[in-house]
Specification:
Elements lengths: L1 E6 L3 E6 L14 H9 L4 E2 L8 E7 L2 H12 L4 E8 L8 E5 L1 E3 L5 E3 L7 E11 L2 E8 L6 H8 L20 E10 L2 E6 L12 H6 L16
Parallel strand pairs: 4-11
Antiparallel strand pairs: 1-2, 2-4, 3-4, 5-10, 5-11, 6-9, 7-8, 9-10, 11-12
């Protein structure tokens, strides 16, 4: 279900497996409940990942820490980097996707042309193998399904994300790879590679990731366009 990446006095960081619910449902404990049970303490969720998405999650251990993290996320002071794999050729290989989001059919969301309160995603991409492309995604907002909608809008739905047109892969290929933030006067950075998925385990992944050794220092595309 998860692997503990860091267990600090005020918070814990875990690497969530793909396919694990955040909240308990269908009689099965979600990661929030299971982690609290395993640690034997009350935890405070400060952000979430979709069920299909694997990767880094922060849980606060105290109400005060939860309030601090909540404020940091609201101010976009927690930087997140995601990895995704898609097929086909994107309409552009790097750039940004920006637009308001609205609910659509079948639990989907859609990207609008308006930009009143837009979802903003910057991205780079590199060829992984023939017919597969690796994406490094930097969300500048925290909208529901934001990254999934962003890639679908580029005509490259994430592999395995059937809700947005992805194929029937062994998993959905979206992973929260890195987190960085400043908390109580200390800088923190965490990274965790995916632990499952045929294409995430492909030998070409490590070589491709050498193109992005330090995402923080990349010359990211402009926020618009």
């Amino acid at each position: 279900m998860y692997q503990i990446v860091a267990n600090e006095p005020e918070f814990v960081v875990v690497n969530k497996d793909a396919g694990v619910h955040f909240h308990s449902q269908d009689g099965q404990a979600g990661i929030a409940a299971q982690l609290a049970l395993d640690l034997g303490i009350e935890l405070y969720p400060v952000h979430r990942l979709d069920t299909i998405t694997s990767g880094l999650l922060i849980f606060a251990k105290t109400l005060g820490a939860a309030q601090q993290f909540g404020d940091m996320f609201a101010r976009h002071q927690v930087q997140k980097y995601y990895l995704a794999i898609a097929g086909n050729k994107p309409t552009k290989k790097q750039g940004s996707v920006m637009g308001d989001m609205a609910k659509s059919r079948r639990s989907q969301y859609k990207l609008l042309r308006s930009r009143v309160n837009p979802a903003i995603t910057q991205f780079f991409s590199q060829s992984l193998v023939a017919g597969k492309r690796l994406y490094l995604l930097k969300p500048l907002s925290g909208k529901t399904h934001q990254l999934r909608v962003a890639l679908a809008s580029l005509a490259v739905p994430i592999l395995g994300d059937k809700l947005y047109g992805g194929d029937d892969s062994d998993r959905a290929y979206l992973h929260a790879w890195q987190l960085s933030f400043s908390f109580q006067g200390q800088s923190w950075k965490f990274a965790a590679l995916p632990s499952s998925g045929e294409w995430f385990a492909h030998e070409a992944l490590a070589a491709t990731l050498t193109q992005w050794p330090q995402p923080d220092s990349l010359n990211w595309p402009k926020k618009s366009g």
